Amino acid sequence: MTLGNFRIFFSTFALLVLSGPVSAFGFGDVVDRAETLAKSEYRAPRPAPEFLRKLSYDDYQSIRFRPEASLWRGGDTRFHVMMLPTGSFYRYPVTLHQVDREGVHALNFDKSLFDYPSPELAKRVPADLGYAGFKLTYPLSKSNVRNQFLVFGGASYFRGVGTGQRFGLSARGIAVDTGLSSGEEFPIFREFWLERPKGGSDVMVVYGLLDGPSLTGAYRFEVHPGKALTLDVRARLFFRSRITQLGLAPLTSMFFYGENSIRPRGQWRPEVHDSDGLLIHDKETGEWLWRPLLNPSELQMGFHQVKGLGGFGLLQRDPEFARFEDTEARYDLRPSAWVKPGEDWGSGEVVLVEIPSESEINDNIVAFWKPRQEVSAGETRDLSYSVAFGRPDVPGSPLARAVRTFVGDGAQPGGGDAEGAYRFVVDFEGGPLAHMKPDAAVVSEVTASGDAEILEHFAEYVDARHGWRLSLLAKPAEGKPLELRASLNLDGKPVSETWTYQLGPKNDLRNSSRQ
Fold this sequence. Notes:
The protein is mainly beta.
């Protein structure tokens, strides 16, 4: 070997040593599995035994994973993995693997990793049951304290939090025919691969294999914990059949009641919700649209057309404990979630589904992106986006935010003395309004769809709030929903985001069954 050849050999060898061995598993491997799976007929997963599926919420919660048994505990990685027990609403076991420099290793079920509420229940749990999913922990606040920050479990659901927050709303891998009378399909993540991070790394990668009657999918999640948790998502979808309503990057939340609705009889808490509004950014038009959430009397769907999606999310804009007064649930600490496309998603619409609910235990809110172009059997689609769980402040929004929406009977004294009408009061904060004097020439702009009447509207500065307020009186056409859009303007230009509202004909605040 010549000296020159030796130098080339040594340099190449050193580069391989410094960079480490090539990963034994990657996104392409999951893509191959998803593509192969899509060519075969769908086979439903085997559910957990009936006695586990019938566990009550409290009984299921009493099954505890032992933290000292966490995967990678004692190693140099900052991430640890805790397993989810199968049972109750986690009906289907999943297959788990870990990926490291030595290869891919199965994470076989071991029921001794759990503490069960009774010896009898522990004996009945099959030795080959399988885990329902997993939780990730990481030192978010202190180096010696481990915090749960991300959970994958149930269908294609995953939930996350930022530093100092409580778990609330969820994201999903996909939504299929959500809100349609034909019924919703719930694809599941059948299999996960957990890539062991390098020592000291603050990034972890998770791969998931999605399967359902209508499609399969390969997913890669790059996980970044912190003040806000961010997941960079890459997916390739293979369609077994045509889908009527495909929902990309879906979010699921709970809205029981808020300041814009009547408090149910017997409830002492002022508000109960994980999220209180949908925010949409159209980067082509520059519009930021805010839609307060509702718990309707009957299912309702809103379709918000967007030319160029900059992002959408379900936000919790109520940050004060006094809004909820709940010392256990701490709804004031629930995260917001913001979805940002990684590439141009083209034209389409953000769909909001609101489902009637008589309890806070039910998730009754869904939001997702519906592309205009439909999908057919045999098609393949690539998708990339990020979803961030954290505080409700969305970077890049320059306008004043709608922070409170109040709705009342427009026929009442002080409401407008207009039979059949509704009074809406909306408070705005921040943006350009924060620097305007109380006598600034801020005006309101309001439109209504259909045959609804706008009886009056105006903007005013409220000294007690140290901010600006929109007040409007509107009357819907008989038996028709009331759909409104409004903003605050100065010199012909918007200084606030667009506030929009949809009140169904059976959501009559003057004759509500919840009074």
